[in-house]
TrEMBL record:
Residues 1-26 form the signal peptide. Residues 110-127 have a biased composition (Basic and acidic residues). Keywords: Signal, TPR repeat. SMART domains: TPR. This is Outer membrane protein assembly factor BamD. GO terms for biological process: cell division. The keyword Protease does not apply.
């Protein structure tokens, strides 16, 4: 009896197993077909891109060849017309070896009639003798007597004028340690040395956490990240400005850059939130004007 039940169970399970196996094989075949279609599509797109690049290269080569042919034709026309070619250096004259004369074109610019020797005869030539002017007697030269200068008439030397001694220049007032350190970091930022500027601003905030320029140093640290498109770190740096110095002038600029950074990372909701906070907390600031434009663009 038990054997009969086992046989019936096996007979019932065999079709089920076959269906499952066939379904898995169908799914596997479908996935393989889809992968091959994607691979073929990608290959086709790559082929089309290569064709486009080759066509662009052919067009550029054809354009260069036509331009060079036009230049050669222009130079050839200039040579035929006796003009200086377009690439001839400035200041140099351009002429052909043949020059027009009365008797036609003579090679080298020489004329046979001009080069012929002149024949002279023995006839008198009164015009060849030029009369000399009459001699004028020179006046006798008189030697002037030496002038006697007495001691009273001798010029007295001018008294020496004492030159004023230059006053030593006053030394320029030296900047304080905090201001000098801040200006160094700001100069590094303007020079595009963002990592060095960040290190200098960190040193400033560590040494002078309560200085008047501490908020500025934190803000420009955020700007170094923003310039490097590291918007996540820029958000953290700008939030440190608003957290530690909520009433400072740089807090308004920091709120603006927080909103813009959130927009750059694809989070428009947070961008609108911080831009609205900027407009509400600092309505008269210049940053608020830019914030209103950003809100209008984002639809907030």
């Amino acid at each position: 009896m038990k054997c009969l039940k086992l046989l019936l169970l096996a007979a019932f399970c065999l079709p089920l197993v076959g269906c499952i196996t066939s379904q898995k094989s169908a799914e596997t075949e479908s996935a393989s077909t889809e992968w091959r279609i994607k691979s073929l599509e990608e290959s086709f797109l790559n082929f089309r891109e290569q064709q486009r690049k080759m066509a662009d290269e052919d067009a550029r080569s054809r354009e260069k060849l036509e331009k060079r042919m036009a230049e050669v034709e222009a130079e050839l026309a200039a040579l035929r017309g006796g003009q200086a070619p377009s690439d001839a250096p400035r200041g140099e004259t351009w002429s052909s070896d043949l020059q027009p004369e009365e008797d036609g074109w003579v090679e080298g610019g020489k004329n046979a009639e001009k080069d012929a020797p002149k024949v002279e005869n023995d006839a008198e030539k009164p015009w060849a003798k030029v009369p000399e002017p009459p001699a004028v007697p020179e006046p006798p030269q008189t030697i002037p007597e030496p002038e006697v200068i007495t001691r009273a008439q001798a010029p007295k030397p001018a008294p020496a004028v004492a030159k004023p001694t230059p006053k030593p220049a006053k030394p320029a007032p030296r900047a304080s340690g905090a201001k000098a350190l801040y200006e160094r970091g700001y100069g590094q930022y303007n020079a595009g040395q963002f990592q060095a500027a960040r290190a200098t601003f960190d040193e400033f905030t560590a040494k002078y956490p309560h200085d008047d320029l501490a908020a500025n140093a934190l803000y420009w640290k955020g700007e170094t990240y923003y310039s490097e498109r590291n918007y996540a770190q820029a958000i953290l740096a700008f939030k440190e400005v608003t957290g530690r110095f909520p009433k400072h002038d740089k807090a308004a600029a920091a709120l603006l850059k927080i909103g813009m950074s959130y927009d750059r990372v694809g989070d428009p909701d947070n961008a609108i939130f911080y831009l609205r906070a900027l407009v509400e907390d600092f309505p008269e600031s210049s940053a608020a004007g830019l914030g209103r434009k950003e809100l209008a663009r984002l639809g907030g």
